[in-house]
Amino acid sequence: MKLAHSYSAVKDFEGCPRRYHEVRILKKFKSQDTEATLYGTAVHKAFEEYIRDGKPLPEQFQAFEPYVAPLKSIKGTLLCEQKLGIRKDFSPCDFFDADVWFRGVPDFLALHKSRARVADYKTGKSARFADPDQLELMAAMVMAHYPEITRVSGLLLFVVARDVVKTEFSRDMLPTIWSKWAGRASMIESAVTNEAWGAKPSPLCRFCPVTHEGCEHR
Predict the structure, then answer these.
(1) Structural domain tally of the chain?
(2) pLDDT in tens, 69-92
(3) Alpha helices, DSSP H only, in 16-132?
(4) Domain range spanning residue 165?
């Protein structure tokens, strides 16, 4: 089975292989939108239109402007929701190419000379469990697509929690980054080969879209 990985897919698998299999491969169950996810989608759209089109933020999101306005003023080429793809040999490709290995979509990407900046918007109520791995993967993909980029600054903007997580990545870190993500992807590919989709029960099971039909822990 040919798989196209992503940060969210890897996290889903590591959280629970059974859920990953039932939702992402068998597609027997579908994650349902919640009030929180719908809110997050609305914030992402408002920020995209603010940066790309110069559209004012809706009234309910204007309190977040101090976090997104600095992005708009960054020098260089500004891109929103840029779709990136990587092959298994770490060469760049289109998002929907048949041989795509990893996919990524930075919420915000700025390119200026040898420097890039990536940002991802978060609407969670706390940055306590922030995961900079998402920025690491995005940074590696950006450097693969843009050979002139030697350094990438990453931001997780927790606009509701009023917090920012910052990271820095350089081109000399790429071998280590790709080795790490190849290892995480190989765990999924091994599960496919061995048909090993064990459940990983946790307090989050009650939020899982998989019903008892697909998992005995529901």
Answers:
(1) 1
(2) 999 999 999 999 999 999 999 999
(3) 17-20, 35-53, 65-72
(4) 5-207
